[in-house]
Amino acid sequence: MKAGVIAVQGDVAEHAAAVRNAAAAHDETAEVVEVRDAGIVPDCDVLLMPGGESTTISRLIHREGIAAEIRDHVAAGKPVLATCAGLIVCSTDAKDDRVDPLGLVDVSVDRNAFGRQKDSFEAKIPVTGLDDPFHAVFIRAPAIDDVGDGVETLATVDGRPVAVRDGPVVATAFHPELTDDPRVHDLAFFPESEVVA
Ligand code: GLN
């Protein structure tokens, strides 16, 4: 399995490790490639859109011609896991002129919505499709406010969606790559089966 991590900015190495672990649980090997230029995404089976700074990621993927390739990847039904800033970039409405969203996940988001008090926090949350709660790490996380028809909410915190699936894209407001638990990567890339932690 060839996994591309969009690496224009953000946390890349952790996702590489997590996708390798998820693949290993299925007796598969993930070859991880870092995507900084156009021409790499078309060869990838799955993609990861990491956290970081959504305004920067958005600007660079459009400038480098990667944005259109990500759209084609999803149009072909191939999986994507988008986390935190990745979710913002994949949304339909980021409510911020500096983000030109890809419109791959039919949700609107509020950047940094959890506010100063809860800037960063951790919570054990139930996630649809996982047997046991997932330890979710939130860092200046966006909130998802409007969820379109056809979007499945996989997890909530305080009644707000924090993980969703829209077709081949799984998007989380939290950072599943920051724990050793590969189950969210597994949900995204091996949707037919589940790994028990
Ligand atoms: N707050 C960041 C943004 O709006 C996202 C933070 C993150 O990815 N951890 O882009």
List the topology elements.
Elements: E1 2-6, H1 13-24, E2 31-35, E3 46-49, H2 54-63, H3 66-75, E4 80-83, H4 85-90, E5 91-93, E6 105-110, E7 120-125, E8 134-139, E9 143-147, E10 152-157, E11 160-166, E12 169-172, H5 183-189
Parallel strand pairs: 1-2, 1-3, 3-4, 4-12, 5-6
Antiparallel strand pairs: 6-9, 7-8, 10-11, 11-12
Helix pairs in contact: 1-5
This protein binds glutamine (GLN).
Shape: globular
Q: How many structural domains are formed by the residues?
A: 1
Distinct compounds present: glutamine
Helix content: 10-25%
**How would you spell out the order of helices and strands?**
EHEEHHEHEEEEEEEEH
CATH architect. name: 3-Layer(aba) Sandwich
Largest sheet: 7 strands, mixed
CATH-defined fold name: Rossmann fold
The rounded distance between the terminal residues' Cα atoms is 22 Å
Count of DSSP-assigned helices:
5
Strand fraction: 25-35%
The total beta strand count reads 12
Q: Taking Cα atoms only, what radius of gyration do you get, to the nearest Å?
A: 15 Å
Mean pLDDT: 94
Uncertain residue ranges: none
So what's the CATH class? Alpha Beta
**CATH homologous superfamily title:** Class I glutamine amidotransferase (GATase) domain
